[in-house]
């Protein structure tokens, strides 16, 4: 299968096979992503130091750019950043666990994947900055900064000056949040973005308006707060009917339904192998761009400064992609409908704007344009004419209907990067099974196998109400755009880049898919000890990836070596109850055991000294750029 | 019927920065019409063609009016009317 890969001819070199244990998943994801972008990935024989992963990136027109991934932004902290440790320390477990009543791990190599994507984006940006006249030699990133970025909207909610979101764990919601279960044991998600299908659907099951209304309020809470305390009557009603019957009611009422599938089922999809071999992006090149004599110079210390992005996006994935480009210095002009995006008013508010909205859009310039009008579309074309990137996340086919598709811009601005942050397929309508489904986070989790993976690992019925895919989708969209910009400067090509929530989901499952000799360093073994433990005060996450670490844990806690695994766990649980999480943290960190105090109330992140460098206290706690350039 | 309306921050520029507005009306539509007389422009931010905007939720006490009688939902003295932007989708 021939795939367009934008950075063919570029090289990435680093000790990817010789990294510390906690960097192995990052290295594996990074290698896969780099390969899918066309990079020649070279695993060098040197050994990485234990505290970081360093690699070098070279293009045909730039000398080596170096990239360092540190464990923590605070250099004085050296604790291992195994996946669960970082999820615990940076609030991901807290958000994911809200629906379960207690912090829980996602069970995915989530932060590792995000870190790999952001690190690659950082080095592409650095090379681009150099091509644009900036004296940059590389980029730095920490794993903790990637993790914090993923919870930035939730942190904004939790710390907003007005009406802070004090959502802790609502025990009552535990059994009643989606997904649902049918009488024949099928677990499934429902989705609608409009109230009418919801009303019609529940009426068919004898649910009265008052209960249906309460359910709608709870259903809407999923995206904003990662909880969904549905009335139990709704869940019970569906449990009396077969999946087939419920599907038929969905078809009649306009509700969308998607069964939670396994990763194995996903692999049987007609286009799966193409998606897997293509990677998270689909690229289309137009090489007939005249040699650029007008390369814009970088204007300040950020590599994308002086570049203009026009963004027409709603909700999370697309706006996050635009936000990341602003953090790299781009001027992002965000198109909103007349009167502004309604989500600007979504509580809690901070300085007159929704805190969670501001967290993704605070650095953008706003233009209110009615894209449904001819005048509005003409205004967009005028903006795009002198822009570098056009980014949208409209529904499939809408761009063509509006006359704002890639082909509509090629003559107008032959050097444009046209980016589409989609829901499902990155190849037009190839994924026919999903054509009629709304491309939202929770539907994609269900369809892709990610929800099932999460449920198996974290003991829940379904996926996560933390918007796992919106965030990763936003990151890979921005990464694809940065790679496309670099391609444009290297090869004088215009590029269309499409990424999607589904392609982000596929990226999260790389350990489950066929290894095409790219990922032989990936770690499949499970940690020996990996859990969240109660202490006298607070919870502690401990992860021992190997026998040496278990041995260190046994020694520092003076646990006899002859205890079997079950007795050891029970003893450990009892022992940890004798001191506070804070006290154990000091003891175990000193012994070199991967450990973190589990963030339970997200707002307390701002009090964590080792995370301060990434946070900016303001009318809400803002998460700063994950990158620094050197 | 006298009811108190909670104004979301985004609309407070219309209500002279008031968070709580007291109006009279037998149903939600009447209350909104009366509010629009006091604060012109607020009605068009909430409804169009006698339907609440898709992205606006209006509650009487704890009940979303779309699950009651919509804009015809009756009000009684002391009811609380709350306006909240809605978020759907990710």
Question: Which pair has the most extensive contact?
Answer: A-B, 38 and 23 residues
Number of helical segments with 4 or more residues of chain A: 24
The helix content of chain A, as a percent range, equals 25-40%
User: Largest sheet of chain B, order of strands side by side?
Assistant: 2-1-7-5-6
- Name of the CATH class of the largest domain in chain A: Alpha Beta
Tertiary shape of chain A: globular
How are the strands of the largest sheet of chain A arranged?
A: 9-17-16-15-10-11-14
CATH topology of chain B: Ubiquitin-like (UB roll)
Give the overall shape of chain B, derived from the CA principal axes: globular
Cα(first) to Cα(last) distance of chain B is 39 Å
Radius of gyration of chain B: 12 Å
Q: Give the strand tally of chain A.
A: 23
Low-confidence stretches of chain A: 165-174, 519-523
CATH class of chain B: Alpha Beta
Question: Averaging pLDDT over every residue of chain A, what do you get?
Answer: 90
Please give the alpha-carbon distance between the first and last residues of chain A: 39 Å
Counted up, domains of chain A total 3
How much of the sequence of chain A is in beta strands? 15-25%
